[in-house]
Amino acid sequence: MKNKLMKLQFKRASLLMAMTIAAGSGFVSVANAQDDERLQLEEITVTARKRDESIQDAPYTITALTSHDIEVKGINELQDIVSFSPGFFYSENAVGKNSRESRRLIFRGMNPRTDLMHRQAASVFIDGAPTIGPEFGGMESVERIEVLKGPQGAHFGRSTYTGALNIITKDPGEEFSGRIDVTSGQYGLSRRGISLDGPLTDSIGYRLTASSYETDGHYDNAAVAGQRLGDRSTDDFALTLAFNPNDNLSAKLRFHTWKDDDGPDAATALDYRSGYTNCRPGAMVNRLAYDPVNGLSHPTVPLDYICGEVPMPSAAHIGMDTGSPRALAMLNSHLDGTFPLANGLRNTPDMVAPDHFGLEREAQEVSLNVDYNFDNGMNLNVIYAAHENSYGSHNDLDRRATEDLDLSGQGGAIWGSFWANHPADSQDLRMQSMEDSSWEVRLSSSDDQSLRWSVGYSDMEIDNISQIIGSMFGYTLRNDGANGDPIRTGNPIEGGNVPLCNAWGADRCGWYGQQTSNSSNTQWANINTSAVYATLSYDVSDKLSISAEVRRQKDDVYEGSNNYSGGAWDPTEVRNAGGEFTSTMPRVIADFKPNEDTTIYVSYAEGTLPGLFNPSLVGLSDSQLAEIAAQTGGADVQVDEEVAENWELGLKRSFLDGRGFVSAAYYSTDLTNVHIPSVAYYTVDGVQTLTGNVTSQGGNAELSGLEIEGTVLMNENLTLGFTYALNDSELGNKFLSGDAKDLLGDDTLAQGNEFSRYPKTSGSLSLDFNKGVEAGELFARADLIYTGKMYASNAMLAHTGTGQKLNLRVGLDTESYRFELFCTNCFEDEQSKGLQAMWDLSGISGEMGGGATAAGPRVLTVSLPDKRVFGVRASFNF
After folding, report:
1. What are the angstrom distances between the C-alpha of 762 and each of 188, 416, 727, 731, 808?
2. Is residue 242 within 8 Å of 359, Cβ to Cβ?
3. Which of 117-126, 177-186, 610-619, 840-849 shows the highest mean pLDDT?
4. Is 644 helix (H, G, I), strand (E, B) or coil?
5. For residue 347, what pLDDT band results from cuts at 50, 70 and 90?
6. DSSP H or E segment with residue 329
7. Residue 449's CB: how many other CB atoms inside 10 A?
8. Which residues make Cβ contacts (< 8 Å) with residue 47, sequence separation at least 6?
9. Which of residues 25 and 353 earns the better pLDDT score?
10. What confidence tens digit (pLDDT) does each residue in 138-174 have?
């Protein structure tokens, strides 16, 4: 069935491309007949292949956004690129959140299925240098953003398995200039920025930018009076020095640092009490009935869930325990040394542990890019870069207000008898600290010859550590209702027993205990990636060119974990695993230019997602490993590389005498040995023990799709822009899904379904109006952005529904200033940013690890959409 569907899509793609060529030719004839003025689209030059080439001639799928696009389209951070780049999606809802902590770059639906930055499937490159994590900071210094889709390993290397973002920063100007930007809007929206650039000497120029960003958040926290959910702030600073002593040599040194300081994220969770549930998928869970002291019962009940479109939660359902005295007491216990931070364990910056609920980040980067152009046209390019990114967040992990449910009988227990009568309010402190450094040297031939080549060597060192200090709170009544002993004492999941009696009332008591999501509270990785690569391009004729790229890459990967429970580090609890992975990644492209307005290309590429290790499985017996492999379909200490084979057919066409441009690409990708997050048990003395999260292997999937984008100058005042993407996927054999198991009772039922948490279809339609007046240029712009439904899990039960957002902008642009009134999401579209089926760590939805379920109960987390915002923006040039 899948092959038939792919063939049908291929035929449709071929037909569409043929129609585009024919239509383009017709448009040109009409334009010539009408003898219109020679309006033309501005030519965009891209440098993704380390050569200057027109985007129309580039024989690969790429979207380019210039500094002008960034300004007029209102692109303020990387997530805004999604609206104008078909096939690319930027997710902030990992781990059920809606924050700047857990971000994922998703190309063509290939979700990386992990939040560990060193295991990501796509990377951001800044001035040609890779960085770990999908972060960049402010946009004030950006000259151009290039979005490349599909496997890019042959050219870019590690962690470009699904695609890459290539960000080119601005160079200093030859004369002194400055710019001030000011934005103000609803919900406390504020952006302030200044940039200065010019010459220091005849051969040295500088560019300096500083900016700040704030918003109060769009939602009230129903559980904490006066608190907003989703407030964010950033301070950003960058300095660039350019050195150009002669026509042959140029160098660019850049330093960039920024800090994020955010409050609790704009998210919530819906359980069986929400009133939105409408189906019972089939699985059963244990829900322990409420009983003040004795007579605990364990009824097995159906799993209530939401099937179909998930409605927008009401204001009463949007609330978290992120400000109560009890929650603050627990936060302080995280920071008072009960569980020391893992600073010094790795060669990374110190952990950032915020003293409030929400996120804090400290990041900086430095890069040096040197070019030497030989007189014969050859080029030598050397790049060095280093990045540090350390962040932490305090979170209400169950995403709901649960601290006062213990007396109402709505609770349960997630760990069996422990806290059996009462819900457990789950919170955690999540921290990651990353450091990377890389260098690359590349020698390229002159572009002015029919046979072109380049060779190079790259080396990258990555050090990453993540620490999770989690906690679950159990509530109990005192026997005498006031000062007697609590019904239960201690019994934490792991670690110390920290009583917090009277922290939230005289008649209640509870305990702080450590619980982590990975069966160890600290994980680390040290990775060295080195590669040699070469490119060869040959013009067979004036119309036909063929290029071949190949990269031979070696990954030395060492990963470890530590089951830490307070006090001194215990070396016996440290588990390490490591080894070497090698891969060869080729790409071959043939491009045909039947005329100067048309480029047709076909390409084949292979990519690999680097292998990894499950250190938590180190030391298990062969029988225990076999037990885990049987449950997960292939989890072991070592997980081999995931492999993608990608075919692509593309068309780029200029028409209307250069007034129009369209790009269309069809792709088909086979994924093998897919990495799959899993949870499993192994037996110790007849007792099942939870592994925590491990990565399995052996699954396969197929991807196919169509991506289209274009621009047309309708006349001297009006420009039309459009994008469309169809990114289909199908999970294949051996693909086991924990979501399907928990919700449907069978982990194989996801086979034949789609990857979750990305839109299968998306697109945009833009109208840009400009008219010259005496003072300058009047402008008005409308962007209609469509996002298809996104499923919460591979079980394909709950989804977001579709979204249609309208952004409007109007203003005046002159040589000395630019003034704009804007409205974003003008009609208040309520499509959530994403959903996720997660374990309900409150215990409200049932017990984990027993009864009819083999893993755990699920709750549906909702990343809330941004509301409508009216605002004003002004910039001043001097």
Report:
1. 30, 44, 9, 21, 19
2. no
3. 177-186
4. strand
5. confident
6. helix 325-335
7. 12
8. 53, 146, 166, 168
9. 353
10. 888 999 999 999 999 999 998 899 999 999 999 999 9
Please give the Cα distance from 540 to 536 (Å, whole number).
Answer: 12
Provide CB contacts within 8 A for 344, sequence distance 6+. Answer: none
Are 877 and 178 spatial neighbours (Cβ–Cβ below 8 Å)?
yes
Length of the chain: 878
Report pLDDT digits (tens) over 630-669: 888 888 999 999 999 999 999 999 999 999 999 999 999 9
Sign of CA dihedral 476, 481, 482, 487: negative
Give the mean pLDDT of 745-762.
Answer: 91
How many whole angstroms separate alpha carbon 771 and alpha carbon 778?
5
Residue 703's alpha-carbon distances to 3, 113, 114, 163, 588, in angstroms, are: 11, 16, 19, 14, 20
- H or E element that contains 622: helix 622-632
pLDDT digits (tens, 9 = 90+) for 404-430: 654 344 444 454 444 433 445 777 888
Please report the pLDDT score of residue 590 as a whole number.
98
CA-CA distance, 837 to 409, in Å (whole number)? 24
Q: Which of 126, 122, 129 is nearest to 104 (CA)?
A: 122
State the Cα–Cα distance between residues 38 and 658, nearest whole angstrom: 8
Q: Over the chain, what is the mean pLDDT? A: 83
> Residue 240's closest CA among 210, 270, 276?
210
Beta partners for residue 644, in sequence order? 607, 671
73-95 average pLDDT score:
89
End-to-end CA, the chain: 62
What is the rounded average pLDDT of the residues 683-707? 83
User: Which three-class secondary structure state does DSSP give residue 67?
Assistant: helix
Burial of 42 (0-12, 13-18, 19+ CB in 10 A): exposed
- Smallest CA-to-CA distance from 845 within 857, 855, 861 is with 857
What is the per-residue pLDDT across 761-807, written as a single tens digit (0 to 9) for each? 999 999 999 999 999 999 999 999 999 999 999 899 999 999 999 99
Residue 602 corresponds to which tokens in the numbers above? Answer: 């076909």
Close Cβ partners of 505 (under 8 Å, ≥ 6 residues apart): none
Tokens 């996104």 belong to: 790
Token pair 């031979």 in the structure block, residue: 552
Which backbone phi and psi does 324 adopt, to 5 degrees? -75, 160
For every residue of 815-844, DSSP letters joined together read SSEEEEEEEESTT-----SEEEEEE-TTST
